[in-house]
Amino acid sequence: MYNMFDMLNQAQNGAAMENLSRQFGLHPDQTKKAVEALMPAFQEGMRRQVESMEAMQSFYKQMGSGNYERYFEDPEATQTEEIKANGNDVLGQIFGSKDVSRAVADQAAAMTGLGADIMKQMLPVIASMMMGGLQRQAGGNPFQQMFEQMMGGGRGGAGANPFGDMLQGMMGSMFGAGAGSAGRGGQGGFNPAEIIDALFTAGRKTQDANTEAMGRIFDQFTGNRK
């Protein structure tokens, strides 16, 4: 089943892994392992972002102002200084602190046998490309649209969840029309956390230990999930 890693693998006309390999001096197999090792951290971070309305609003507001789609499409854009700043903004929002980013890089390095310095360099690039892929799948700039909707201009009454709606549509386009039924919440809406899990975990193998380790990192620096 199509997942977030597959989406990144198809970036830049299917040449993303080769382009990243050249950029960071890695073999393509090493690059794929590095990206796969980072996915559980992004999953955990994004999952926590959608667990409260306050966190979601902050996420929408920051992400809504970024044009990340160019990083998903243009290999030259991923080699600029700008991507580091934009990617670090994404990491700051998703991970919450530089301490988490460093710990994530160390854990991914341990999983892959690559240097932690390489993982730290890759993190903002992967973050920007991933956000660009989400924007591309959702069409335009979904985060700005969702934020405006949540702040009073859009459809839906109390309890409406535009992030769930966006992810449902994204699931449909990525996985097929019937996939959006996964993650339906208890009040007739969609559970964003469950959809985040589906986006990241579909088709993944041998990641259980790494996923648990990434979860412990977030617990250590941000507190246990209630």
Question: Can you characterise this structure?
Answer:
By secondary structure, the chain is mostly helical. It has one domain (4-222). Helices cover 72% and strands 0% of the residues. It has helices at 4-9, 11-14, 16-24, 28-49, 53-64, 69-73, 81-95, 98-112, 116-138, 142-153, 162-175, 192-201, 208-222. The longest helix is centred in the middle third of the chain and has 23 residues, at 116-138.
Task: Record the SSE blueprint.
Elements: H1 4-9, H2 11-14, H3 16-24, H4 28-49, H5 53-64, H6 69-73, H7 81-95, H8 98-112, H9 116-138, H10 142-153, H11 162-175, H12 192-201, H13 208-222
Using the CA coordinates, give the radius of gyration: 17 Å
Q: In percent, how helical is the residue content?
A: over 70%
Query: Whole-Å distance between the termini?
Result: 30 Å
Low-confidence spans:
153-159, 177-188
Number of strands: 0
The average pLDDT value, as a whole number, equals: 78
What are the secondary-structure elements, in order, as H or E? HHHHHHHHHHHHH
**Beta-strand proportion:** under 5%
SS field, number of helical segments: 13
The shape is globular
Query: Structural class of the helices, strands and pairings?
Result: mainly alpha
